[in-house]
Amino acid sequence: MKGRILALAVLGLGSGALLYGCGSSKPVSGGGSGTAQLPPQAYCVLKSPRLQVGTTPDLVIDGVTYTHTHQPDAPSAIELPLANPGPQPAGACNGNGQFRFGSGLYDTTGPIGGNPTGHADMFGMVIPPQAPNGIHIRLYARAFAIESPCNGKRVAFVSDDVGALSGLVHQEVLKRIAADATLKRYYSADNVMLSATHTHTAGGGFGVPVLPDLSSTLPALLDNPLVWVESLIFSDANYDDDNVNAIVGGIVQAIRRAHANLEAHPDSAGIKMSIGQLLNANVNRSPPAYRQDAPSERAQYVDQEGHEVDVEKRFVQLNLVRGNGSVAGVLNWFAVHPTSMSNHDLLLSSDNKGYASLGFEKLMGTRYLPDAGTTPDGADNFVAAFAQTDEGDTVPDLYVFDKDVNGGNGPGQGVPYRYRGGSDDPYNFNEAGYQRGQQEATAISGTKQLAQALTQFTQGNALTGPVDYRFFYADFSNDAITDPVVLAGLTYPDLPAALYTPAKTTCGTGMGVGFGAGGVNGPGPLAAGNVCVADAPSPYKQEIRTGYNGLFNGTGYLVLEQNDQPLTVPFPGVLATGVVAPLLCTLKTVEPQYACQNEKPVLLGSEKNPVPFQIFRLGNLAILAVPFEVTTMAGRRLRKTVLDALSPVGVDTVVISGLSNDYLHYMTTREEYSAQMYEGNSTYAGPWQLAATQQEARKLALAMAEGQPAPAGVAAMSFSTGPASPVTVDAPGSFGKLVTDAAKSYAQGDTVDVTFVAGYPGNDLKTMSSYLYVERQNAQGGWDVVGSDGRPDLNFIWHSNASLLNTELGISGASTAEALWKIPLDTPAGTYRIRHEGVSRLSASKPAQPYEGVSSAFQVTGTPADCP
User: Which residues pair with 655 in a beta bridge?
Assistant: First the structure.
């Protein structure tokens, strides 16, 4: 890594950016692409006050100061393209700057209702219970098809708004591609990369087990009560066929659209890559773990003010602009957890990355409409994918470790939880709106990423070289590290040699007891930092028990739900973990498969899936796909391994595409693993998992560099789908009838609150459609749609009467649909209304019936602002 990290000191627009290739506003040479132009309303984003959050030592909200000790980011060294990579292989693709590309998006929003309606709860936080009851931002799959005409090779990259990409989803997508007469000619497991954004507020039940699923072995009469009781404590992710079909179908349709868009544009153009630095947008959530890494290694990552940079600040973006100036889209990678909505949110949401995507697409006039026929028309429709990378230890909660105004940093001190994202969103159970999540915190994080993407939209250098790809599965059940290049880089002379003595192999997979502690952005009831072998290089135990606001000590309580109301039950997490951990360590003596987990007190076994490895080459950029959440230092090491293998053939930049093609939890460095914080507890294959990943990724990279096929590897696992989701029946009612009507008049910035008698929304997912519409009366007396659900300003909330009896009977009970429209400040004055479209079902054996409800017309008065 040394020698290819350059320090720049250029502040970007608002959010702080270091830009590679930004010395000129002229189109880059050699690429032949048009020049991207910022949309007119971009200035609203680039001057947003949200960009200033985290830029000063003080946090002041509603006139109250919560800390004076926040450390704003300063510019630092980032990984820029290697200055002198080797020559690209001779042939037609040598120096190629011409690509064909297409983009496509499709709705993947699944059912709401959760366990009470027989569907899965949200996947991501696990606890407390999160049965989704509405929509904040709809979920989408965003796909890009890219081909190099010089060799005829093409790839499809998909970023999907989902908590994780399971092996089941990967398998089902590939099955549908293989069954599609057009797609199967171009796409397969080798050249399709599926990556999750990792939003924690999307539906579950897609093949990543959270708790044992007994549904396949128990009759429904017994299983329903069991799942119900389980759902009082945990967010459960039992198989949900409706959600699986929404995810899989949406991904495949997005690929169809991207393919049609590519085929409809035969002319080739350049793709520009811009690399910048986004400041004050992420922090490390496990500083004690990061400090286990070698001092000599950490010293390479220091900002201009001498502070350690313990999270990745690099923002890599591809701008796909045609020669005529038409923009197919942007694809970027930045490391941050999409957890801004927090662990009490009950609205489906694509969180901060989805907020940024929708914001960019709104500026560019993106259309969210179903296809008019059976085949996508191929017309350009701008797609903005804010994809995930090595975010394993990064969170958007900027103030999570700051001291309070009295200098307190111990348990119960520091910045209160609700303000750690820099907003004043409701968080406590007794606050109105707390179940709607932390929407302003989401907007702050999303706006920062959006501003960075806009800043880099008109910048960049042309990619040069071929499109290429490799894919294979590795067996991590007992993968010994034998590669001499990898072995040579595993030890550090300024750390104890004893840390590196255990046999260097992966282990029987398992999760540690600290897995139940959760991350600081979503704490669980247990405590982190308990180990079987106390060999961490840097002391940390006292620090995490008496400092950091008690964030590593567990919540101190369990959260239960009763009649949709949360209850807290005291639970001594530190004491319980302290008792359980030694017992688990003792058990390892009779469970030899876990012996090499070393420091980890193994709580439960984990997946035994083979590990998918994939590399895409787009000219001088390589994208490495792994199924892990990779921590910052692990990502730095892994990128170097792959770059060292590919730079001799002209690759100068590597990006990690995390959570891709399957989900196999976390991956830390060996040193971070020794502390057994949340990420180490979740590194499922043991202390040498990163080394094994480097070894297998290097095999794949060398195969690409040498023009050889991918290693044989092992066979993919075959996953079974579960039963069809249950049909939920509505109680009889006057569907669409107004329960609460709009007032006669509102001003910009007010909230319109309208409620209708509703049917169960799961009767129709409204894919590429909406449950709600904001409509404005036009000059002819008709109504034009100006807003729909799934956008941040219009929330759809379903209120039901959940009970075990209703679950057993398969009915939702009487329910209502609430529309909450926070009128944007730039909304023109005029006459508006809110319309609700739904579907009711009074019998499981009869077709569902559509219905409609419309509010009274109301006035929006006042002078609109320039910005929303």
Answer: 623
Instruction: Answer yes or no: do 684 and 789 share one domain.
Output: no
Give the model confidence (pLDDT) of 401-452 as tens digits.
999 999 999 999 999 989 999 999 998 888 889 999 999 999 999 999 999 9
Examine residue 59 and state whether it is found in any structural domain, yes or no: yes
3-state helix, strand and coil shares in percent for the chain, rounded to the nearest 5: 25, 25, 50
Q: Examine residue 6 and state whether it is found in any structural domain, yes or no.
A: no
Residue 566 is predicted with a pLDDT of: 73
**Residue 269 in tokens:** 């153009």
Query: Does some domain include residue 535?
Result: no
Residue 9 is assigned to a structural domain of this protein: no
Extended strands (E) in 563-620: 565-570, 602-605, 611-618
Angle at the Cα of 89 from the Cα atoms of 86 and 90, rounded to 5 degrees: 130
| Domain range for 199 | 14-471+611-705
Q: What phi and psi, each to the nearest 5 degrees, are found at residue 15?
A: -90, -10
Domain co-membership, 90 together with 138: yes
**658 and 786 assigned to the same domain:** no
Task: Fill in the amino acid letter for 100.
Answer: R
Residues 449 and 306 in one domain: yes
- State how far the Cα of 200 lies from the Cα of 543, in Å rounded to an integer: 28
Q: Record the tokens describing residue 456, joined without a space.
A: 């880099």
Using a cut of 0.85, tell me whether the model's pTM lies above it. Answer: yes
Cβ neighbours of residue 488 closer than 8 Å, sequence gap 6 or more: none
Domains in the chain: how many in total?
2
Compute the distance between CA of residue 858 and CA of residue 185 in angstroms, rounded to an integer: 53
Amino acid identity of residue 35, one-letter, is T
Tokens of 617: 């080459």
| Confidence at residue 2, expressed as pLDDT on a 0 to 100 scale | 37
Distance of alpha carbon 297 from alpha carbon 284, whole angstroms: 17
Neighbours of 741 (CB within 10 A): 14
- pLDDT of 224 > 80? The answer is no
